[in-house]
Ig-like domain-containing protein (Caerostris darwini), 138 residues
Amino acid sequence: MLIYFFECVFSFNQRAVVFGIQMAFVISSYRRTVCGTLRPLDVRIISPPHHLSAGRKVTLECESTGSRPRAVMTWWKGSQKIQTGNEVISDNGNLTLSTLSFVPTADDHGKKFTCTAKNPSLSNSLIEDTRTITVHCK
């Protein structure tokens, strides 16, 4: 606590009037903690071609933002985990981009492709985005 005392002198009709004011200021301590572990805020498949052709290679991209440390990205075809091809992490680590390249077959028509993002340091941090693909045969 800081205490200040001010004294003022006024002259009125040749008489000096002195009065004092005492003020007390309470300055509470302020502490800011920056959390170093954050869950992913968003995950999105950002390049789903609307129509895929059987036998032609396609690349799907998925981005996740907000996780600290970076999100661990996983791709799924139905209930089957798929090995991802490439991950790019932004300089500040806030954005993770995962790509999945594959050659669709007629059997892939109507299958659900899911991209998940998870911070392994936090339980219940898994979020996902899913797309159902349409495969056209030659």
